[in-house]
């Protein structure tokens, strides 16, 4: 995938973080009317099928025999483990702590991309990623109350690792596969697994087919899954994975702001502190400096 212009890149990053940021409160409302695994499975499955239908005229780019392993691996890391473990982990730890641990992802992407992709690494980038993580911790500090089980902490960390590995893997294989079909198949295959698991462990009769649920499902299908993953992989494949990942530190900030407006959740000074730290983090990670590359 070719290089993006600066203006287009900025617009895509802004749209991505807004979509992912507003997803959390929208899904939170929808989850009051549906079992979690079935909700995760349906929105990913429908998102993948929708994208596949749109891409049908370019079916010859699928190359299933050559690429099915790529589609499956991406689906496992970016959908089954990422969304599935989120659903399970939130039952064991407070949401604030869970989001902080999941947003170890940009830090891990920086490390994995340096190790396996030979991407640039510098002291400023390392410091920036750590500061960004601290910013997410500040933003999420209000959600630290409640029982914390070690199993939930482990699940959250595995969630972050799976998302980071999925990101770096997609970057590594992006020249072998069509990026659009990769998103379609990872969502479809992953969605089948999640929906199947939900069908066994949860009950379809527990779904309340009302406006909040259907709205959340439609949002997730079209914008929260299909469009956002397309944006994310396009950005990752066009530049340094760690630089793109650094912007995802903004997602919890937007989520808290939107939650305060839609769900009347409180905004604290920690949010502003976190926003400053995250802004400084993004500046450091994306600043051009003399770097060291992995041999």
Beta-sheet strand percentage? under 5%
Large-scale geometry:
globular
Low-confidence stretches: none
Radius of gyration: 18 Å
Written as H for each helix and E for each strand, in order along the chain, the element string is HHHHHHHHHHHH
Number of DSSP E strands: 0
What integer is the average pLDDT? 87
Structure, explained:
Helix 1 (6-30) packs antiparallel against helix 9, helix 5 packs antiparallel against helix 10 and helix 10 (241-247) packs antiparallel against helix 12 (269-286). This protein has twelve helices and no strands. The chain is an all-alpha fold and 295 residues long. The protein has one domain. The model has no long low-confidence stretch (mean pLDDT 87). The two termini are 24 Å apart. Helices cover 75% and strands 0% of the residues. The protein is globular and about 45 Å long.
């Amino acid at each position: 995938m070719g290089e993006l212009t600066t203006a287009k890149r900025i617009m895509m990053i802004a749209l991505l973080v807004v979509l992912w940021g507003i997803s959390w409160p929208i899904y939170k409302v929808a989850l009051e009317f549906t079992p979690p695994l079935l909700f995760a499975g349906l929105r990913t499955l429908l998102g993948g099928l929708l994208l596949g239908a749109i891409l049908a005229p370019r079916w010859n780019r699928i190359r299933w025999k050559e690429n099915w392993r790529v589609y499956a691996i991406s689906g496992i890391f970016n959908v089954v483990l990422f969304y599935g473990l989120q659903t399970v982990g939130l039952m064991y730890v407070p949401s604030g702590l869970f989001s902080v641990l999941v947003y170890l992802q940009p830090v891990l992407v920086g490390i994995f991309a340096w190790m396996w992709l030979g991407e640039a690494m510098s002291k400023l980038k390392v410091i920036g990623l750590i500061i960004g993580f601290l910013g997410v911790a500040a933003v999420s500090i209000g959600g630290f109350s409640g029982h914390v089980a070690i199993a939930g902490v482990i699940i959250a960390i595995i969630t972050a690792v799976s998302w980071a590995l999925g990101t770096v893997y997609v970057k590594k294989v992006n020249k072998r596969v069509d990026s659009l079909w990769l998103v379609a198949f990872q969502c479809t295959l992953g969605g089948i697994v999640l929906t199947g698991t939900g069908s066994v462990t949860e009950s379809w009769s527990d779904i309340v087919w009302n406006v909040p649920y259907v709205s959340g499902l439609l949002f997730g299908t079209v914008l929260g899954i299909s469009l956002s993953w397309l944006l994310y992989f396009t950005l990752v494949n066009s530049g340094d994975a760690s630089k793109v990942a650094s912007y995802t530190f903004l997602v919890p900030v937007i989520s808290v702001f939107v939650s305060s407006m839609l769900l009347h959740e409180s905004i604290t000074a920690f949010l502003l502190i976190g926003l400053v730290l995250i802004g400084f983090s993004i500046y450091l990670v994306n600043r051009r400096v003399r770097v060291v590359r992995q041999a």
